[in-house]
Write a structure and sequence with these properties.
There is one protein chain. The protein has 7 helices and no strands. By secondary structure, it is mostly helical. Helix 2 (about 30-50) crosses helix 3, helix 3 crosses helix 6 (about 135-140) and helix 5 (about 120-130) packs across helix 7. The protein has 2 domains: about 1-80, RNA polymerase sigma factor, region 2, helix turn helix motif (Rna Polymerase Sigma Factor, Chain: A); about 115-183, Winged helix-like DNA-binding domain superfamily/Winged helix DNA-binding domain (Arc Repressor Mutant, subunit A). The radius of gyration is 20 Å and the shape is globular.
């Protein structure tokens, strides 16, 4: 065990990381109440284990790992998956048609991300939405830095392939519409 005098007070850790960990849980669970419950449960687990934690630990990664494990347990118990990509889906400045198209696109991306394998989905969320470093992701997912990079890369590659395939199917329809408009 490390020197506990080097450790910040637990309430300082909670204040510093609660909002970002809540957003992570919200994206993982797609439900506000579940995210709040998991956040409380995760911080309770962290508090109970805090005395055993080394004073030189990466506290942020440690808290994310506990929160991620708590969320995975909740997901398994409810047998559901999915994430919420945006806290503000509707832009009142856009025309209604554009808002509907944006909503459809977000739903398609949400479903595509939800269909990724767990490690790829979590690594992608941590990197692209939580903006964590690969070192932090590797600590949270208990993998190497290379493993974290590979999970993000593979997840992005699968998404890109899926949407390129969908785009190629939609392009002829768009070309027909554009030619009709010009006549």
């Amino acid at each position: 065990m490390g020197d506990s005098n080097n450790k910040p007070q637990f309430d300082i850790l909670v204040d510093a990381h609660a909002a970002e960990i809540y957003r992570y849980l919200w994206r993982m669970l797609q439900n506000e109440q579940d995210a709040e419950d998991c956040l409380q449960e995760a911080f309770l687990k962290a508090y109970l284990a805090y005395d055993r934690l080394d004073g030189t630990a990466n506290y942020r990664a440690w808290l994310y790992r506990i929160a991620g494990n708590t969320a995975r347990t909740r997901l398994r118990s409810k047998l559901r998956t999915g994430i919420l990509l945006s806290e503000d889906l509707a832009d009142p400045g856009l025309p209604v048609e554009q808002q509907a198209q944006n909503q459809q696109l977000l739903e398609a991306v949400k479903n595509a991300i939800a269909a990724l394998p767990n490690k790829q989905r979590e690594a992608l969320i941590l990197r692209k939405y939580q903006e964590l470093s690969y070192e932090e992701i590797s600590a949270i997912l208990d993998t190497s830095v290379e493993g974290a990079r590979a999970n993000v890369y593979q997840g992005l590659r699968k998404l890109r392939t899926q949407f390129e395939r969908a785009d190629s199917l939609a392009v002829p329809n768009l070309a027909e519409e554009n030619s009709e408009v010009g006549q």
